[in-house]
Amino acid sequence: MQAWQQSMRQAMVDPAELAERFGIDSAPLREVARRYPMRISPYYLNLIEEPGDPLWRQCVPDVRELSDPTPSPDPLDEARLSPTPAVVHRYPDRVLLLAGGDCATYCRFCTRKRKLGCSSMTVSETDLAAGIDYIASRSEVRDVLLSGGDPLLLEDDELEAILQRLVAIPHVEMVRIGSGLPVTLPERITDNLCKLLRRFSPLYLNTHFNHPRELTPQAAAACARLADAGIVLGNQTVLLRGVNDSADTLATLWRGLLQLRVRPYYLHHMDLVRGTGHFRTRIEAGLEILQTLRGSLSGMALPHYVIDAPGGRGKIPLLPEYLLELGDKARLRTADGEIIQFPNYEI
Ligand SMILES: *Cc1c(COP(=O)(O)O)cnc(C)c1O
Ligand code: SF4
């Protein structure tokens, strides 16, 4: 067994053990974790300095998860956009292939919170094969995003087999991997993995740093190994109330990422996922942060601020031509020109 697999076995999944380690009451944690499971990798757990700090908030259950009035467990309507269980096909030329069934650390703000840690998150061999067949049958698909769960939790040979089948499809021009492991399990980014990945160029990897305290020497070394293997690195940050919703924090994060050869790609406004409402800011908060940073930060460090429109309508850039009205019910224009309302208040 490899070191990273050992780490996965030692992940913190028991709220009582966590509560004891930090000297807090375990009852509320246990109640929340019964509904939405907890998992924290040993490495990420060690980054937490005290209860309530920005890293704690991202991975430790919070009682507010149970009282969130957000109506939908699946606001992006991924179920409707799935022609076959392992595929989400929203845009003509690019698809998500759900290749990984699990994550090293469960983000409390996860878009797939409804499935996280449940058996419905696992992807069977049959589903995966059907997903790849679907991609092969759709000649308009140029760009395949491996997502999940975390595709880098697959074993090297499983990942290699998937990549081989994808690059053998003539119309697939590139593959992107979405993985949080440089942030939560950097020991997974082994030399062997990088040697394998470098054979599938052009290969893009988007990771998920949300706070400057995640930019540790171990994370930096993981990113360096990937970049040295010719993988183009990007980052998707989620704007999280109480974690990173300040211009200073995000400026430090994004500047630090450029130093690791990771280009900030998206700043995501929180999705309307049940159980995550306490993380949602107003849209104005994100707009103000970017306005403050424009000019003082290089354009290289500034991601696109986007909102995923409910009902599977796709990402909307938060720019004046799409933002018709703010206020408690924001009015937005989708990429297809449809006008939608988006709840824009803190709870
Ligand atoms: C975000 C997303 C993509 C990729 O979109 P890009 O803007 O090209 O990064 C593809 N499919 C789905 C369903 C998505 O949500
Ligand atoms: S890494 Fe992504 S899929 Fe996994 S728990 Fe976090 S947000 Fe969810």
Describe this structure in a few short sentences.
The chain has 347 residues and is α/β, with parallel strands linked by helices. The chain has helices at 3-9, 15-22, 27-35, 42-47, 54-59, 125-137, 156-167, 181-184, 191-197, 217-228, 247-259, 283-293, and strands at residues 87-91, 94-98, 143-147, 174-178, 203-207, 232-238, 262-268, 304-309, 314-317, 323-325, 329-333, 339-343. The protein contains 12 helices and 12 strands.
CATH class division: Alpha Beta
Indicate the percent of residues in helices. Answer: 25-40%
Q: Which residue ranges are poorly predicted, with pLDDT under 50 across at least 5 consecutive positions? A: none
Q: Please tell me the overall pLDDT.
A: 95
Span between N and C termini?
A: 45 Å
Question: Strands across the major sheet, in which order?
Answer: 1-2-3-4-5-6-7-8-9
CATH-assigned fold name: TIM Barrel
Major beta sheet, specifics? 9 strands, mixed
What are the secondary-structure elements, in order, as H or E? HHHHHEEHEHEHHEHEHEHEEEEE
Number of domains: 1
